[in-house]
Design a protein that fits this description.
By secondary structure, the protein is mostly helical. It is built from two helices and no strands. It is elongated, with a radius of gyration of 24 Å.
Length: 59
């Protein structure tokens, strides 16, 4: 029984800190939705091909 007290206390503290971070991080600075009004129209094949070639040359 004595061996389980210390890890249990540490785990409870870890859960408390994690909950604190989640609650107060997102409560103070809400972020706007990601995918609203981000549409720039349709993508044509030529532009997609050029972008893929450009990315492959970079890497």
């Amino acid at each position: 029984m004595k061996d389980f007290i210390y890890p249990t206390i540490i785990f409870i503290i870890f859960l408390y800190v994690l909950a604190f971070m989640l609650i107060y991080t997102y409560k103070t600075a809400p972020t706007p939705p990601t995918f609203i009004n981000n549409s720039t129209g349709t993508v044509n094949v030529k532009d997609l091909q050029n972008e893929l070639i450009k990315q492959l040359k970079i890497n």
